[in-house]
Amino acid sequence: MARYSLACGATVTTPLTDSSTRYFGCRRNDASSLANYKKMYIGYGGTIVAADISMYASTTGTNENMTMSVRLNDTSDTAIATVGAATPVRRFSNDALSIAVVAGDYIELKLVCPAWATNPDNVKFGGYVIVDV
Amino acid sequence: MSYAPPQGKGAMEQNYFAIPVGWEAINPLDSTTYYAGAPWDVPTTTNAIRKAYTPIAGTILKAYVITVASTAGTNENISVYIRKNDTTDTLIATVGAAANTRLFSNTGLSIALAAGDYVELKIVCPNWGTNPAGWSAGGYLYVVG
User: Fold this and answer.
1) Which of A75, B1, B65, B104 is deepest in the core (most CB within 10 A)?
2) Residue B72: CB atoms within 10 Å
3) Are A86 and B1 in contact (CB under 8 A)?
4) Does the distance separating the beta carbons of A89 and B55 come in below 8 Å?
5) What is the structure's pLDDT at B11?
6) Rounded-to-integer distance, Cα A90 and Cα A52, Å
7) How confident is the model over A50-68, as pLDDT tens digits?
């Protein structure tokens, strides 16, 4: 077995609005509300086995739940984690994923936001997914 | 799941992955320590808010961090460390070069990580004659795990 990782992230996203859905990937840009603009293409088929994404917000916001998923080919979502924490750093991690991918597939990171009492602001993301081949 | 490397296999069959790290462009200040890591953001003087986590246990073996400055600045030493769990620093490299591009690399690392550990880059800046400007970085920490 071999293994590789794909970096992903988003530059400043201001703010995370109530009940919005955001997408990001490998392109150096913000986390936008439109899918299919931040595609990360799979070069070698295998299985996505883990993902670890850090989110930093200079305005922390309140602790309602956010769910981060891996969205494959703009079709199917697999949850990485749901996090409800009023902390500047929020971690979305999962080491038990099993998402089969083939060369030419693409993924995006999808974040579903709640209706916050106080919205996180000045938000950035960074992390990676791990693929076993 | 078991992520133990296959026994008796060649290097290409080991279970390697890379933790991406870096920072967005800043104009670094004299004698200042910055922290950077996973979020696509400028480095900060506050530790433990640029965490890059690992979901899988392993060992960091190599680090390559390339920095580019639009204004090179003078050649005083800059040190870049891997800071684990906001506790332990391991030097990647110290570079003193009046160059737009500076490479901080180390292929002799052995930093054990448990699942859930995090690392940051700790950047110790000197008192420059002329400070770099527009200084950004990107790189990878190579993990076998």
Assistant:
1) B65
2) 19
3) no
4) no
5) 45
6) 11
7) 999 999 999 999 999 999 9
- The 3-state DSSP composition of chain A as helix, strand, coil percent (nearest 5) reads 0, 55, 45
How many Cβ atoms are within 10 Å of A103's Cβ, its own excluded? 10
d(CA A56, CA A102): 31
Q: What pLDDT score was predicted for residue B6?
A: 38
Q: Do A126 and B20 touch (CB under 8 A)?
A: yes
Q: What is the mean pLDDT of chain B?
A: 91
DSSP A118: S
- pLDDT-derived band at B7, boundaries 50, 70, 90: very low
Dihedral over Cα of B7, B10, B11, B15: its sign? negative
Measured between CA atoms, the residue of chain A closest to residue B18 is: A5
Q: Do B39 and A2 touch (CB under 8 A)?
A: no
**Which residue is associated with the tokens 């110790």?**
B124
CB A112 within 8 A of CB A21: yes
Chain mean position to CA B130 = 24
Supply B15's token pair.
């279970």
C-alpha B141/C-alpha B106 separation (Å) is: 10
CB B120 within 8 A of CB B141: no
- Distance between CA atoms of residues B80 and B82, nearest Å: 7
